[in-house]
Amino acid sequence: MVETTVLIVGAGPTGLTLACELARDGVSFRLIEAAPGPRPGSRGKGVQPRTLEVFDDLGIVDRVLAHGRMAMPIRSTAPDGQVTTSGGEPLEDRPDIPYPASLITPEWRIEEALRLRLAEFGGTVEFSTALASFEQSDDGVSAVVVRDGVAETITARWLVGCDGGHSIVRKQAGIAFEGETREEVRMIVADVEADGLDRDAWHMWRQADGLVNLCPLPSTDAFQYQASIAPGQDPDLSLANMQAILDRRSGRTDIRLHEPEWSSLWRANIRLADRYREGRVFLAGDAAHIHSPAGGQGMNTGIQDAHNLGWKLAAVIKGASPTLLDSYEAERRPVAAYVLALSNARLKQAIEPKGVPVRRDATTMQLGITYRGSALARDDRDETAPLRAGDRAPDAVKLTTVEGTRRLFELTRGGRFTLLNFGPASALEASSFDLRILQVVGQSTGPGDIADAEGQLTDAYGATDRTLVLIRPDGYIALISDAGDVPAVSDYLAAVHRLGIDGHELER
Question: What pTM was computed for the model?
């Protein structure tokens, strides 16, 4: 029998993100994957700005950006032959948003970057290792896994199912997966090389019988092929069928497809788990919610599930109040419900005979996700304030430190709580809470001091000369006190870390 702290089932983007979060916090884990090796296929190729911020925090954003293209134009051809291009406008330069547009890159590139980072943290993926069964008690989970026909029992304090829409973890935990499977809504998705087509834009064509898309996949020679398949239409994944659909719907015969490198027939399976936790078992990613590909939301939502759960698991394992874990479902399930509705609407928009091409906009960027009203969000601001506790912490640039000019996100990396102190220096003991304190001053004179000469940081946070802003390890605002209430910060951190202050725990 082998012991570990967290057993993660599934090594897609969600499981890999969670493993990276735990590894950098020094938490022991096992990451198992039933597949014999890394999965092929571009699958979820859109990375949203908020997810890029998560990758920034994990230290892989440069690697991801190097293999992708931001703000790829979409070139749409209507049935009457009219061509429109959108999405290729110059990116807006905003100090509070470091990544202002979505990135196109194959999903396997995301997994590759996360595996490399995990290896740098000393972790690894155990391929060809499948979960067979598990039992749980008040103290932990006992799981049987099988590799090469040999069974092994692993005991862990926690089990996290990141094993996709057909999740074994979810099924064995007895968690209902509410929603619908719409057999009449299907789509061929494939990675193919193509001759006779430029790679300058994402190409979309629509005819009365459906749509077909070819999106160039950066860092490869392939395109992602998508074709809607209505009832009665041929769903065959052969090159001949894919070519025939393309010829008919594009009205062109000069584009020649090569044999697919990877292909799949997607069905509209739109579901949300009844709950995200059963005792010591959690669900994340597609195991908890599955979406249509429209709008590029599914993979991103799973990665952010892991970013939310990871720091909370690490904190509890290090002695924080177990009630902290209750906030995972409370914060993330409403996000998934919203995203399901959004992606479903985008899918309907895309497949309707007279529908218009799906466009990327602020609703798909995931920067507006908020945990306002969470048990972990506290502030003394009016309800009309544009920035409240629970919101995403905005970035700022041109901050002067003793090490030079920095962005705020450079200073808040690493999975720790950060206090922005716009008021006088406090006597708060940073070491007691593993807290990073950034003191906003007129001129940077020492470690932890940041000078906001252009006022970008002050403006972004709507700060007064007394404001305190506590930022969570996942980049959301935990607490704002415009009154400069230092005891409120201490009480909040004590509640999270459960340092024995009269048994106080986080409550609304």
Answer: 0.94
